[in-house]
Design a protein that fits this description.
alpha/beta
């Protein structure tokens, strides 16, 4: 835990440097000014405190925007503990500010995987109540599903599943297995106790939502879950408009690269890919899209983009961006055949969209660190390349916008985090009614999140007359679209 302050006697936290707290507080105040949705929700519920006393754990990038979310949940009455969901995404000054405010936080930029998963365990470990030495959360805010995964795997282990004793498929999986085996020795029966008190989870990302649906379909989901990712004011705003700004921000902060005139490949044309493609096009790049979905591919073609395969672009493209949420999108063989000094980065998923494990262990490849989160990999002579060429990798294949910059703008995160807050309120209010399945917030709440942000940007809505509303068959005050409508 290099250069990390921990003081478990008076405060419960692990951060880089608590002395950064005042700087973090100034930045958090700036973020609040750009997050009208969260601030209005905070004001609306500050007196009633609907989450009073609720043990709430969060696994989500520890940024200034997340700090506003944390303090909103705290204002609503929750007892909050937090960790980042990415080893590179923490803004150390903002983590320090949250710790200084007395809210337990376990996050710093540049964690090892071992430290990351220890922080996840700390975040899930709430103080005891006299009956229990330690307790788990009642509600979880998750981003990528790591907290959800750890609890489910822990319960499986305590039920006799042998997964923890099999070799890990990669380094991170082995770290998880080692952590679970350690908890089995130090805290017998802990995970079943956690599951017994757990009432629900709201999930932020495409990847995490996929995991939830898979567990639900297999009959293994332990709690009700709300899919926040597919709220329109999350998916279209965070994934599309957020990436449209934060991808370029990450590339520009990390490098001296001029995007104009370059050939850029965007792997995937979902909402994240759309935002990235239009951003790079706006900077003057010639953008090529790769896709598996014929509808998305047709959309890309109709919007003026060439659609090809990664293999078609090798030796031609200057920039590669993965956005898919899948694995092995860019392989070691792809990187070995890329144009000299091509730039490679990811904004879609964990570090396995790009085959980082294979790249880091390849015998004929040398790695040179240029600066934090910027590495140059040079390939030796092999049968698949001429030898001596290099590529630049950003954020070690993890999220470039958070590893190399500060993530999405505060205003767009206000939309996402307003959804998260409403989801947490809904889960707690319906904890005795909801089944162990995956829910979505109703359309009316989706529209409400949008309404919370309109005044700040000078938007005035047209109002339906009763006759107009009756003519199209909707309430005067909405919702205005059916659930199946695609924005």
């Amino acid at each position: 835990m290099n250069a990390v302050t921990q003081d478990t006697h008076t405060h419960d936290y692990k951060v880089r440097d608590i002395a950064l707290a005042e700087l973090g507080r100034r930045r958090i105040r700036m973020a609040e000014e750009e997050m009208p949705g969260l601030m209005r929700i905070r004001a609306r519920y500050a007196q009633s405190k609907p989450l009073k006393g609720v043990r709430l754990s969060g696994s989500l990038h520890m940024t200034k925007e997340t700090a506003v979310l944390i303090e909103t949940l705290n204002t609503l009455g929750a007892s909050v503990r937090w960790a980042s969901c990415n080893i590179f995404s923490t803004q150390d000054d903002c983590a320090a500010a949250i710790a200084a405010a007395g809210i337990p936080v376990f996050a710093w930029k540049g964690e090892t995987l071992e430290e990351y998963w220890d922080c996840t365990l700390d975040m899930l470990t709430h103080p005891g109540d006299g009956t229990h030495n330690v307790r788990g959360p009642e509600l979880i805010v998750d981003d990528g599903g790591d907290a959800t995964l750890l609890i489910h795997k822990g319960v499986d282990m305590e039920n006799g599943d042998n997964w923890v004793n099999t070799p890990g498929a990669n380094h991170e999986e082995q770290v998880i297995k080692n952590l679970l085996k350690r908890t089995a020795k130090e805290r017998p029966g802990f995970w079943k106790k956690v599951a017994a008190g757990w009432k629900g989870v709201s999930e932020e990302t495409t990847t995490g939502v996929h995991r939830l649906y898979q567990m639900m379909e297999a009959g293994k989901l332990l709690v009700p879950a709300i899919n926040v990712n597919d709220s329109v004011t999350k998916s279209k705003f965070d994934n599309l408009y957020g990436c449209r700004e934060s991808l370029a921000d990450g590339i520009k902060r990390a490098t001296d690269l001029m995007v104009a005139g370059k050939v850029a490949v965007v792997c995937g044309y979902g909402d994240v890919g759309k935002g990235c493609a239009h951003s790079l096009k706006g900077f003057g790049a010639r953008v090529i899209i790769t896709e598996i979905d014929p509808i998305n591919a047709l959309q890309a073609a109709m919007e003026g983009f060439q659609v090809a395969t990664v293999e078609d672009t090798l030796g031609i493209a200057d920039i590669y961006v993965t956005t898919t949420g899948n694995k092995d999108i860019i392989t070691l063989e792809h990187m070995a055949a890329m144009k000299n000094n091509a730039l490679v980065c990811n904004i879609g998923h964990f570090d396995n969209e790009i085959q980082m494990d294979r790249l880091n262990t390849a015998r004929d490849v040398t790695r040179e660190n240029i600066k934090p989160q910027v590495d140059r990999y040079t390939f030796g002579v092999t049968s698949s390349n001429n030898g001596g060429h290099s590529i630049y990798m950003l954020a070690e294949g993890r999220l470039v916008n958070l590893g190399c910059a500060h993530g999405h703008p505060s205003f767009v995160m206000s939309n996402s985090f307003s959804n998260q807050t409403l989801a947490q309120l809904d889960l707690w209010a319906n904890k005795d009614k909801y089944e162990k399945t995956v829910y979505r917030l109703p359309k009316k709440l989706d529209e409400e999140v949008a309404r919370l942000h309109l005044e700040q940007i000078g938007v005035k809505l047209t109002k339906l007359t009763p006759e107009q509303a009756a003519y199209i068959g909707v309430p005067v005050e909405g919702p205005y679209k059916p659930d199946h409508y695609r924005y």
